Amino acid sequence: MDKIVIEGGVPLKGTVEVSGAKNAALPIIAATLLTDEKCVIKNVPMLRDVATMLKILRGLGVKAQMEENRVVVEPLRYKQCTADYKLVSTMRASICVLGPLLAKQKLARVSMPGGCIIGQRPVDLHIKGLQALGARIKIEHGYIVAAAKQLRGGNVFLGGAYGSSVLATSNVMMAAVLARGRTIIENAACEPEMVDLANFLIKMGAKIKGQGTPLIEVEGVKYLHGAVHSVIPDRIEAGTYVLAAAITDGDLIIERARIEHLSALIDKLQQVGISIKAQKGAGIHVKRRARLLKPVDITTLPYPGFPTDMQAQMMALAAVSDGISVITEKIFPDRFMHVSELNRMGANIFLEGASAIVKGVKRLSGAPVMASDLRASAALVLAGLVAKGKTEVSRIYHLDRGYEKLEQKLEKVGAKIKRVKE
Ligand code: UD1
Fold first, then answer.
1. Per-residue pLDDT reduced to its tens digit, 241-270
2. Cα(370) to centroid of ligand 1, in Å?
3. Domain 2-19+233-421: top CATH class
4. Mean pLDDT along residues 318-335
5. How many angstroms does the Cα of residue 24 sit away from the middle of ligand 1?
6. Ligand 1, atom 11: closest residue by C-alpha
7. What are 349's strand-pairing partners?
8. How far, CA to CA in Å, does 379 sit from each of 104, 109, 209, 220, 341?
9. Residues with CB under 6 A from ligand 1
């Protein structure tokens, strides 16, 4: 297994380019199951999760290939409706084939995703939403089995204990586009990745209004055709590089980053003492304003609130700030596996329920640490970039799920980072 070795303390300088958004690419690739025609998806990041999604499609009898950052899918009237159990269980996001398969094949069998390291991941909202469209759903031999001869439009409020759900909204929207009549989704997720999915579906001939707001309206159509689409830049990857500049006292231009997708993060970073400016064209310029970073209080929330997918990385920054920060997790209350690893590097963080109290320290010190999930791994890399001495991050297959060419991109802007075989 590979690990990442970082020699910390180098301020990052230069330009780093953001790849396409993983969380937009995955449901968009799943949405190609709604048509019989060829689709071309561009700006797809080359990541393990994308490879897994393509394998799931091939397992369904669909022709799906990736060359560089371009995915070509040719469904060719595929017949299967069962998504491979093993593949689905390796990636929670594969649940987003449920809606398209049900709408197109009238029957879908997708394995029940288990809990994962960041906490319980229920599927009740996916089920509730599809039932509102007339689907009959049962759990059988570890599979979610959904069936409906003809889905019909319906009204559904998609709110759970922690607010809206990104993939449940995606699933219901993808099923509704081929349902008979009108569907109203209330408390819909507003994430930019949802909007990108809706825009792709519209290119395929779907009738959708309200994407990006909590009320989405879908008027079902009989048939969707093929489409060509370019995936939006990854705001979480962009945010991670913003923090890499901030934590190393660097000076980075993050090319292609969309500033309008990063408002919650930027607002907090301005309070901390980081200057962030939009570049002409696309991209942002990040630089520290003050020598000492101010502490900051953060609560993760659905978009446009502070993203849970940036919580771990922000904690790495708070760990070296001058004061006490409180970071509260309101989406996945158990998502704190990075705390003990950051403490291993000399951070001073303790947990109080769903909040982390972060007492800033002057410096972190490099150590062997273990990644537990995708964003926790990114936080450990950030900590390693600023820590004194050598940090070794193992189990980096998590990073390969979500960051395209991470070490190459960081190396290009001056980081002393390499991937080695363990
Ligand atoms: C997506 C993102 C993930 C991000 C998360 C929250 C993808 C591929 N993944 O995951 O990176 O961390 O949004 O922004 O886009 N919930 C229920 N019932 C359900 C479904 C979800 O209660 O049926 C809860 C979850 O446990 C969580 C909250 O709703 O507390 C939000 O989760 P959700 O938005 O569904 O996450 P995902 O869509 O799986």
1. 999 999 999 999 999 999 999 999 999 999
2. 24
3. alpha beta
4. 96
5. 14
6. 309
7. 358
8. 40, 36, 37, 42, 10
9. 23, 26, 92-93, 120-126, 160-162, 165-168, 193, 308-309, 331-332
- In ligand 1, the atom with minimum distance to the C-alpha of 332 is 30
Atom of ligand 1 nearest to the CA of 49: 8
Question: What distance in angstroms lies between residue 308's CA and the mean position of ligand 1's atoms?
Answer: 10
Task: Specify the pLDDT at position 325.
Answer: 98
Beta strand spans in 320-397 (E): 324-328, 348-352, 355-359, 368-370, 390-394
- What's the pLDDT at 84? 87
Domain coordinates in residue numbering, the chain: 2-19+233-421, 22-230
96 catalytic per annotation: no
Amino acid at 184: I
Which protein residue has the closest C-alpha to ligand 1 atom 25? Answer: 121
Residue 76, SS3? coil
Predicted confidence band of residue 421 (pLDDT cuts 50, 70, 90): confident
The CA distance from 415 to 4, in Å, is 12
> pLDDT of 290-302, one tens digit each?
889 999 999 999 9
Average pLDDT over residues 96-101: 97
Q: Which of 298, 295, 294, 292 is CA-nearest to residue 311?
A: 298
Read off the pLDDT of each residue in 189-201 and give the average, rounded to a whole number.
Answer: 98
Pick the CATH number of 22-230 from 3.65.10.10, 3.30.450.20, 2.20.25.90, 3.40.80.10: 3.65.10.10
Residue 155 has pLDDT above 80, yes or no: yes
140 contacts: CB under 8 Å, gap ≥ 6: none
Residue 358's Cβ-count burial label (10 Å; 0-12, 13-18, 19+) is buried
CB 422, CB 4: distance < 8 Å: no
Q: Which of 39, 81, 116, 190 is catalytic?
A: 116
pLDDT in tens, 6-29: 999 999 999 999 999 999 999 999
Tell me whether the CATH fold assigned to 2-19+233-421 matches the one assigned to 22-230: yes
Element (H, E) at 131: helix 124-132
The separation between the first and the last C-alpha atoms of the chain, rounded to the nearest angstrom, is 5
